[in-house]
Specification:
The complex is a heterodimer of chains A (281) and B (317). Chain A has 281 residues and is α/β, with parallel strands linked by helices. Chain A contains ten helices and ten strands. Chain A has a six-stranded mixed beta sheet with strand order 6-7-8-3-9-10, sandwiched between helices. A four-stranded antiparallel beta sheet of chain A has the order 2-1-4-5, covered by helices on one side. In chain A, helix 3 packs across helix 4, helix 3 packs parallel to helix 6 and helix 4 crosses helix 6. Chain B has one domain: MetI-like (MetI-like fold). Chain B has a two-stranded antiparallel sheet with strand order 1-2. Chain B starts with a helix and ends with a helix. Chain B is flat and about 75 Å long. In chain B, helix 4 packs across helix 6. Classes of the chains: A alpha/beta (281), B mainly alpha (317). Chains A and B meet through helix 2, helix 3 and helix 6 of A and helix 7 and helix 8 of B. The structure holds adenosine-5'-diphosphate and magnesium ion.
């Protein structure tokens, strides 16, 4: 099956970002205006094991960036350096730079950074609380106290996650009572409740059926105008459907990063072609 | 021929599997029935041997404060009070400290230090209670008498709990030694409950911008609440039934005083002290009646624990 590529002939797309002059190499090169986040020369280590090698990658604002590649190639590791959640694992470190709006994430207050860069995990992980309290938790730890504000935020977030109609009558029920797909959308709503500028999703649909998957993809489209999205997926059709740009990882290296169309129709590297045509992984 | 042989051997396998199932069911049934039988037997024996006292004193047995074997007067209240008060004091001290220590071991301490400390804590759980009792007599009693209780009296002396003469032995000292003895249970079980909380729960909180502390208190603790509640009730069960160490430090005085410094008595302690030298059948029967009360007390508390666990698990995940 030929992957269906969403229409995206916008002239603002750069071509082959990894060989474009403005994004190649030197860490002190000013980032392009559209780069929301950027990794430069990123090497990541779990103890003595190196999981990422020299990653240079730009995440454009208000675009969906997909990361694909065989299992164990470092997609999750890369995603988790963007909000510094990897540093909660003992013995991890990295060299190089990760920038948010041109500012090194290491120099920022980590809780403030994570409010701006939200995350949705592979396995839906609602808190053992009510639906309402799941969504309200993020705003609360970020200082929202008024009950009325919280109610407004909860409704808004659930609406953005297209979950409001399904749960509005059971906000005080435990989140565990929802179906798998609803739980994952709840987790997206929970992440959206703090108004993140960037949303990271690590294989968010891997445990979901096709209909639930479709709902989440539609949800991503609908929030894209306000949010920059990075999604890890092992499902190449999904990358082709939702992503504007796609990066292909293999063995800890970023093999190729380009417009999704190019990755799937006209990849410049042999490994990429083998992978997207199913000859690998 | 070959196929029929195969199919018979197959049915034979099926048969033996089925027989295994049957046997397993039977064994389970026997054990379950056995447990029920033992419980009923305990109740029957306790009832039988306490009927003399219960018949003579009736409900008055539970409300009377008078325990005087010389004049054949027996009332359970001072012992029930002492048992509940010392256990309450033990939990009051051991729960916050124990859960706090568990949080430290599970969430904050470097793994090496955590595993060494956990090993030591688990070692403490295995120390026989008579050793705690001896330790208490030599160190805790003088320490309470000369330091802790005078300090409490001079700061909180306006409360009736901290007034009156200081002996060193009494409710408070018994509560402290029980706290020390329940501490290891609460720590090691709570710690395991905390460690069993999935990593994704912590990460979900952190990824929303929660601090380490917020993630621990708001998310990890509620996730581990069943295990923590369980550890508290296990500690309580130990405190209620603890005999040796308490007998050595509570003062063995069957009276109810408001002051926590005053000597008191517990059910387990009085049974241990007086059973061998009981002055007659009525005395013996009154002691068995006390043990019946203790049995019922632990039953009620276990039931309450079940209900609490059921209630909290329905509310949450
Ligand atoms: N916590 C960890 N400790 C040590 N090695 C890890 C850890 N997490 C992942 N790795 C290793 O890092 C590599 C990349 O893993 P990961 O980023 O999870 O890959 P992907 O998400 O692409 O499947 C793998 O070899 C994996 O075994
Ligand atoms: Mg992964």
């Amino acid at each position: 099956m030929q992957p269906k590529v969403s229409s995206m002939s916008s002239p603002s797309f750069p071509t082959k970002m990894h060989i474009e002059p403005h994004s190649s190499g030197a860490a002190n090169t000013p980032t392009s205006k559209e780069a929301k986040m950027r990794a430069a020369n990123l090497n990541f280590f779990y103890g003595s094991f190196q999981a990422l090698y020299d990653i240079d990658l730009e995440i454009q604002a208000n675009r969906i960036t997909a990361l694909i590649g065989p299992s164990g190639c470092g997609k999750s590791t890369f995603l988790r350096t963007l909000n510094r959640i990897n540093e909660t694992i003992r013995g991890t470190r990295y060299t190089g730079e990760v920038l948010l709006d041109g500012v090194d994430v290491k120099s920022q207050d980590v809780t403030a950074l994570r409010r701006r860069v939200g995350m949705v995990f592979q396995k839906s992980n609602p808190f053992p609380k009510t639906i309402f309290d799941n969504i309200a938790y993020g705003p609360k730890v970020n200082g929202m106290t008024s009950k009325q504000d919280l109610e407004v935020t909860v409704e808004k977030s659930l609406r953005r996650a297209a979950l409001w109609e399904e749960v509005k009558d059971k906000l005080q029920k435990p989140a565990s009572a929802l179906s798998g797909g609803q739980q994952q959308r709840l987790c997206i709503a929970r992440a959206m409740a703090v108004d993140p500028e960037v949303l990271l999703l690590d294989e968010p649909c891997s445990a979901l059926d096709p209909i639930a998957t479709l709902k989440i993809e539609e949800l991503l489209f609908s929030i894209k105008d306000q949010t920059t999205i990075v999604i890890v997926t092992h499902n190449m059709q999904q990358a082709a459907r939702v992503a504007d740009n796609t990066g292909f990882f293999m063995l800890g290296k970023l093999v190729e990063f380009d417009r999704t169309e190019m990755i799937f129709r006209n990849p410049s590297k042999k490994e990429t072609e083998d992978y997207v045509t199913g000859r690998f992984g | 021929m070959a196929s029929s042989a195969k199919s018979t051997s197959f049915t034979a396998v099926r048969k033996s599997v089925q027989m295994g199932d049957e046997a397993a069911r039977l064994v389970t049934l026997v054990f379950a029935g056995g447990i029920l039988l033992i419980t009923l037997l305990v109740v029957a024996v306790l009832w039988d041997h306490s009927s003399l006292a219960l018949y003579k004193f009736g409900f008055h047995f539970f409300t009377s404060q008078n325990w005087d074997p010389n004049s054949d007067e027996f009332g359970a209240l001072p012992f029930v009070y002492g048992t509940l008060m010392t256990s309450f004091l033990a939990l009051l001290i051991a729960v916050p400290l124990g859960v706090g220590a568990a949080i430290f071991l599970a969430e904050l301490a470097p793994p090496k230090i955590s595993s060494i400390l956990t090993f030591l804590v688990e070692l403490l759980a295995a120390v026989p209670s008579v050793i705690y009792g001896l330790l208490a007599i030599f160190t805790l009693v003088p320490f309470m008498r000369d330091t802790v209780e005078p300090a409490l009296q001079s700061t909180l002396g306006f409360l009736p709990f901290f007034q009156g003469q200081i002996f060193g032995v009494g409710y408070l000292t018994a509560g402290v030694i029980l706290a020390i003895m329940t501490f290891p249970f609460i720590i090691s079980i709570s710690r395991e409950a905390l460690l069993a909380v999935p990593r994704e729960q912590r990460e979900a909180a952190l990824a929303l911008g929660a601090t380490q502390w917020e993630s621990t208190f708001d998310i990890v603790l509620p996730n581990a609440r069943l295990g923590i509640i369980g550890s508290i009730f296990l500690g309580l069960a130990r405190a209620l039934g603890e005999t040796m160490a308490v007998t050595m430090v509570i003062g063995n005085d069957p009276s109810i005083k408001a002051s926590l410094f005053a000597p008191g008595y517990t059910i387990a302690a009085v049974i241990a002290n007086e059973f061998a030298e009981a002055s007659g059948n009525l005395h013996l029967s009154a002691l068995v009646a006390l043990s019946f009360v203790l049995f019922l007390l632990t039953m009620v508390i276990n039931g309450a624990a079940r209900l609490m666990i059921m209630a909290t698990s329905r509310k949450g995940a």
